[in-house]
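[step 3/7] fold_predict: job queued, chain A
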Amino acid sequence: MLVNLMGFSLDPKGAGTLKSYVSAHQSSVSADALVDHVLSLGAGYAVIEEPYVDKDYSADYLNFYAAAFRNYPRHTKRIHLFAKSVEPALRLPMAEQQTALEEAGYLGFVVVRPIAQGPIGRTILKFPSLGPDLLVRSTVRATFNVHLLGSRLELTGAAPFIQQDERLGSCAQASIWMAARQVHERHGRTPWHSIADITALATTPTDADLSQHLPAGSGGLNPIHIIRALRAMGHQPLFDFFLTESESGSEDAVEVRREAGRSIVRYLDSGLPVIVALADVGEKVGHAITAVGYVEARGAACRASHGYDAFVRAIVVHDDQRGPYRLMPLTHDDVGSLPKDRLLIYSDKPLTVEDAASHIFVPLPSRVFLRADRADTVVRDFLESYVEQVGGAMLLRIDGVVPDAALAVKDFYALVTSGRLIRRTYLTTAGRYRHHLARADLAEEIKTELLVRRLPHFVWVTELISPDCPPPEGDDARNIIGHMVVNATSSADSDFDLLMAHMPHVLVHRDINVEIGADPPFKETALIFEMHAPYRGRKRLD
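[step 4/7] structure written:
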């Protein structure tokens, strides 16, 4: 069997042809959104590669379609997208095609499965750009190597997307696949799993609810099934639930709802995909999508919050029903600041995190036991107690050593006591933390004290940010005025959680490996430094 290539320009007619392919010649909101995204990336040319053996579809074929009486095709098509025409490149000798294809601007590919109910298979496309006022943080991304007629094309900065195949699974399986595939490609700490694999793991053992649809699990999964699948895939699944106002009459119900966006941003900043369950999207009760990034306002904070959501307008989501890279505003106040054509729309209205997100699932690494919100609380409690109990004495020490520094420290204390200090909390490894720190524009003596400290493999880092900090330059992170390091392998004992705290002119270190029964259960030291200046926070994937 020969592999055939067919190319066409993505002019209006070509865009219509592309839409016909990815929608199986029928109306599809997801296909429309996918093609619109491709065109927004600046795609000018498409190459159809067929037949194409797709590993994911082959696994699903063996688990279902091969056993059906009807003959289903076993091969797919793969559509490659380029910024410029590749016709001149394909006429070159094979040895010269690699460079020419790279220069054509590779934007990604779409696998088209030969099934009408879910033709969009494994899809890898670059993140969007939203103009000068909005910064898309492509936090959940990976690098993919793509082979086309012997040429290897590298695609960096993409998040996997797939449409659900109703015969094999639901939106839950598609969301798990999108989350897990990025972790597999980026970190390599978990094996490769197909949709069929995910369904099998989620439905073992099979309960009565699952058996209402055959194959088991094709009608949807509940939270227990999702957690079961994630754990069997090698993850440490985190489940968190957020109340809706209709479900709780308490006065803090609104704040609980706001915590949903705050929590999602923390995990996205950690490079972790977040499966978001929607309570009611109008057309369909119960739906799951996958968050892969967020949209940040370039200017000052757009809301009062102690979390980094203060700067965030929306999360970027993959919705198998609505397409890749849709925008889900955090609140209704954010809707007007976002491009209308990218909003996640159900029942003619945009969904917001505050209104629709009921619970989340996060595929944490297996050795992480401390939740993001708990790590953030450890930092908050330390800062408040530090200012209250030690602040005055520390000011006297600083004033005695570095007289001019007392004012900067007082300003920092004022941010803490007023609740205006913004905390950006994210998970990282000790190695990556040190790698970033070594390149930060900190005084060498401070770096040295931070870098020589023994740390666990996984840590939570909380960057301390002024709400009046200047806008980020390009896609850099914002400047910070300090940071904290928290033990991510802890079991929620605050005395053992905080490891280091860098604040203006002060560095606090806690050694938690002291004798059992010691009081206090750690040895704390504080160092005063003459030098202090804001320094750049960590950009995701630094």
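[step 5/7] annotate
The radius of gyration is 25 Å.
Residues 240-362 form one domain.
exit 0
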